[in-house]
Specification:
Blueprint lengths: L2 H9 L12 H26 L10 H13 L2 H33 L1 H14 L8 H8 L3 H25 L3 H9 L4 H38 L5 H11 L2 H29 L8
């Protein structure tokens, strides 16, 4: 392809516009479409549950009734508060530790060579493998569950941040050095800003993995929490409680992700992060 053809091809590429920048009319249209999709999914669920044993597939009405019962006796709210506290604490600590470690590993070769064996080893060991050890070492209380969330978060954030640091524009790095910027100033003015989108992506991915981990941790050693609720439902043969726990996890994760995206847009406007 000739150079003129390449230029014309790239000139026809329109960058994607984030949903939050769309006109209100178009945002409302997308909301209605999503609402219709959810309503259709619930209708299909209801049809599938007709003539089916509730132990196998409870109906939407039965699940909703059970959710009301759990709300009224306080179980639902207590489970949300317990799981949210563990997720947000472990995830927050993982982000706070993972970002600086990722910056150091990405910018300094000797740090990367020293920590890379540990990163490459432990990131392939699932957190559920450490559940028993976490309970033995840290006890069955909150600390063991927070540690598992931290474990599942820190490696994801570290690797994504390191990738962002290594993708920094070499021309900008050379320009900073040519203007007399030292190592610290170069990192803060060139490396960190170019790595922000990677940090945000790593934090969001880690949030999803935190929800995967919390269920396993709470099933093994917890009296409260959404994972404990699901396990209790199994013991009592209340499949509808399992559905309530699963739906709550999905809605809670959706809400947390939206909060992270909103906070990122507000706090990092200068870096033009589109999430």
């Amino acid at each position: 392809m000739r150079r003129r053809d390449v230029s014309s091809a790239y000139s026809n590429v329109v960058p994607a516009i984030p949903d939050w920048k769309l006109p209100y009319k178009e945002q409302f249209g997308r909301f209605l479409l999503a609402l219709a999709s959810v309503a259709g999914g619930i209708a299909l669920w209801g049809l599938a549950s007709l003539g089916t044993n509730p132990l196998f597939l409870p109906s939407p009405a039965l699940t909703f009734t059970s959710a009301i019962e759990l709300v009224q006796d306080g179980t639902w709210w207590d489970s949300i508060v317990a799981s949210s506290f563990r997720i947000l604490t472990g995830w927050g600590l993982g982000v706070v530790v993972g970002i600086p470690v990722g910056i150091l590993m990405g910018h300094f070769r000797w740090v990367r060579q020293m920590l890379d064996p540990y990163t490459e080893f432990f990131r392939f060991v699932p957190p559920i493998a450490f559940v028993t050890l976490a309970v033995i070492w840290l006890g069955p209380d909150e600390l063991s569950k927070i540690a598992l969330i931290f474990y599942t978060t820190v490696f994801i954030v570290t690797i994504n941040t390191m990738a962002g640091v290594q993708s920094a524009d070499e021309i900008r790095l050379r320009a900073a050095r040519a203007l007399g910027a030292g190592t610290l100033r170069t990192v803060m003015t060139v490396v960190v800003p170019s790595s922000v989108p990677f940090m945000v992506t790593g934090a969001r991915l880690a949030m999803g993995n935190s929800f995967l981990t919390i269920v396993s941790a709470e099933i093994v050693s917890a009296q409260e929490g959404l994972g404990a609720l699901i396990w209790t439902a199994r013991n009592y043969g209340r499949t509808e409680w399992v559905f309530v726990g699963i739906i709550t996890l999905g809605l809670l994760g959706y809400a947390f992700d939206r909060i992270v995206r909103y906070a990122t847009r507000r706090l990092l406007k200068r870096y033009r992060v589109n999430v």
